[in-house]
Amino acid sequence: MARTIIENIVIAQYKKQTFFEFCQYTTIRFFEIVYFEEGSGTIKINGKTVAYSDNSIFVFIPDDIYIIQAETSTTVTAVKFLKSFFRNTTLQNATLPVNNWFRKIEEILNSESHELREMQFETEADRAHLVALVNMVATEYLNKQSFDIFIIQNSLSVILHLIARNIQFINTSDSIKAVKSSKIQQIINFIHANIYNSDLLTTKSLAEEFHMADNYISEYFKKHTDVSLKKYIINYKLKLVETRLKYTDLQYSEIAAELGFTDSSHLNKTFQSYKGITIGDFKASIT
């Protein structure tokens, strides 16, 4: 049974079932978290099949299609952000940290580790925290008389933060996981975490942050990534621009200001230079 507790967010919980019909939101879903509290079976995701079991957690992004085939009775909770949540913000959603939530989700949208969508965690503590928070949101949902928007809002914020943090862990190569002091991965992580603060991403600031000479950090980055530091930062920003053009109704000037471009003209010139297409033409191609 589903109930919309915040406009354009749907919470659905099913207890000890073997048949599920909650994929009906696929065409309008932007992002979804599915937590299997107990049970076993398989989940077919975009044509590929993976097993689920107790405490499995999956995340889905736009256009993902999944089908659950339960082998034993299964209890599952789903939290669905509909596409309209990030468009035409209503008065009901105006008090929510919508843009902050979008920033967390966009790290997942731009992740390369999506093939099977099952979450992995750097520590079991992170998994336990996420499970507890999902259960807290579900408990509020089950309160038919009223719900506490403060609990739901803050729980969802932390849930998205935990997922984004662990997506970063998934994307880290095994060799770097074994040597967590890898400086190049630290630099990349720092860039991603501070992409909205251009002052922290200057060559001088990065060199100071990582105790390297100004004229060496760019050389070091290029040596280990085969791309210049400046180009990497711009390319990552333009990925985020594309995400906003696809999933939000932000004005070009708003996107430019958020990502540190001088104005919409500067953003458009940079976008065209790197992508070979204007922002307007890109927007038209996806709508």
TrEMBL record:
Repeat recorded as keyword: no
Domain of life of the source: Bacteria
Organism encoding this protein: Algibacter pectinivorans
HTH araC/xylS-type domain segment(s): 185-285
Name assigned to this protein: Transcriptional regulator, AraC family
Gene3D superfamilies registered for this protein in UniProt: Homeodomain-like
GO molecular function, one term: DNA-binding transcription factor activity
Keywords: DNA-binding, Transcription, Transcription regulation
Entries under PANTHER family matching the protein: ARAC-FAMILY TRANSCRIPTIONAL REGULATOR (PTHR43280), HTH-TYPE TRANSCRIPTIONAL REGULATOR EXSA (PTHR43280:SF2)
InterPro entries, alphabetized: AraC-bd, Homeodomain-like_sf, HTH-like, HTH_AraC
Key word Cytoplasm present: no
A Pfam entry, by short name: AraC_binding
